[in-house]
Design brief:
The protein is of the alpha+beta class and 354 residues long. It has 2 domains: 226 residues, P-loop containing nucleotide triphosphate hydrolases (Rossmann fold); 119 residues, OB fold (Dihydrolipoamide Acetyltransferase, E2P), CATH 2.40.50. The strands form 4 sheets. A 6-stranded mixed beta sheet has the order 7-8-9-3-10-11, sandwiched between helices. A hairpin with a 2-residue loop joins strand 10 and strand 11. Helix 4 packs parallel to helix 5. It is globular.
Length: 354
């Protein structure tokens, strides 16, 4: 188990976090730039000293400010994958992986490095220089180097951010498999919730130096603890005033116009959260049908392919986003300026107090 408790004043910024992740599991710490994500990694690695804190991994205590314990970075058994991978340009791939193994004979260092490179499918690139490798190949070499010393914990700083869009998905799947097979606790930081969802067994959302919610992706999506979490996880967030209705539903008069219903209780100012994939689009002149309670007239503003889905930006009194299949987009003949109706169920409408 990797456990981190830290409080630090970083200029005008206050960091106050408590995190833990067991062996063989990855906790992805996700949040916007400046939220304190990388500072947490640096505290674990011993590169940043908090005012108060404790870092332990298994039976090892790497930091305990109350007991006066502060193990130097080079003695903390953690592998660190840097954002830009930080490979030595003058060394070959195998030499980069072997670099932390300076206490072993050269032949043993090379054998160990080749084993790791083979594990990640890049043994044939052992003699290549980093500048000749693709982004995905550099990532694999960097992860191999981080695991070379058989670390007690693995730290990853924005591991997919240096990759192009085409490489990111496949490299992400490979990295997720590596993290599962590593057998050590992993702590990963990213500004991208999709990346966190792909790589983390659990996700912690951090904002302003504090972890505001930790859970599985499904838990965060189904029950966000705040408007910030709902928005960050990709939900559509609207605002309005809630009032209990005579039909047993809560009705929300949206700011700017429109009305939606929810099965959740609420009264007064609320934020309304609905996921884009729960919104159905129909042509503007289609008669209402089905059990969905919520119908908002919209205008299409943008159409973007996201994997095998189509993300549709919608203008309404408050902006909306829907995610539909490519087949649905073609059937609806969607294009910017088209009129439609956004429809979703009351059961998909989550309410958060403001």
């Amino acid at each position: 188990m990797l456990r981190v408790e830290a409080r630090a004043r970083l200029g005008a910024f206050a960091l106050d976090v408590v995190l833990e992740t067991p062996a063989g599991r990855c906790l992805a710490l996700a949040g916007p730039s400046g939220a304190g994500k990388t500072s947490v990694l640096r505290i674990v690695a011993g590169l940043l000293d908090p005012r108060h804190g404790r870092v332990s991994c298994g039976d090892e205590v790497w930091l305990d400010t109350a007991a006066g314990i502060d193990v130097p970075p080079e003695r903390r058994r953690c592998g660190y994958v840097f954002q830009e991978y930080a490979l030595f340009p003058h060394l070959r791939a195998w030499q980069n992986v072997a670099y932390p193994l300076h206490d072993l004979p050269r032949r043993e260092r090379r054998r160990r490095a080749l084993e790791l490179l083979d594990r990640f499918g890049v043994a044939h690139l052992a003699d290549a220089r980093p500048r000749t490798l693709s982004g995905g190949e550099r990532q694999r070499v960097s992860v191999a180097r981080a695991l070379a010393r058989r670390p007690a914990a693995l730290l990853l700083d924005e591991p997919l951010s240096a990759l192009d869009a085409r490489t990111r998905a496949s490299a992400g799947r490979e990295l997720a498999a590596v993290l599962r097979d590593s057998g050590v606790p992993a702590l990963l930081v990213t500004h991208d919730f999709t990346e966190a969802a792909l790589l983390g067994d659990r996700v912690g959302v951090i904002d302003g130096g504090r972890v505001v919610q930790v859970g599985t992706v499904a838990e965060l999506a189904a029950a966000p603890a705040s408007t910030f979490v709902a928005d960050f996880t990709g939900a559509v967030v609207l605002t309005g005033i809630a009032r209990p209705g005579p039909d047993g539903l809560t009705h929300v008069a949206l700011d700017g116009g429109g009305d939606v219903a929810s099965t959740e209780p609420g009264d007064g100012p609320v934020a309304v959260s609905v996921h884009p994939w729960e919104i159905v689009l129909t042509p503007a002149d289609t008669p209402r049908s089905g059990s969905a309670q919520n119908h908002i007239p919209v205008e299409v503003t943008s159409i973007t392919a996201v994997g095998n889905r189509i993300r549709v930006g919608l203008a309404a009194p408050q902006p909306l986003t829907a995610e539909i299949t490519d087949a649905s987009a073609r059937q609806l003949a969607l294009e910017p300026g088209a009129r439609a109706v956004a429809t979703w169920k009351a059961t998909a409408t989550r309410l958060l107090s403001r």
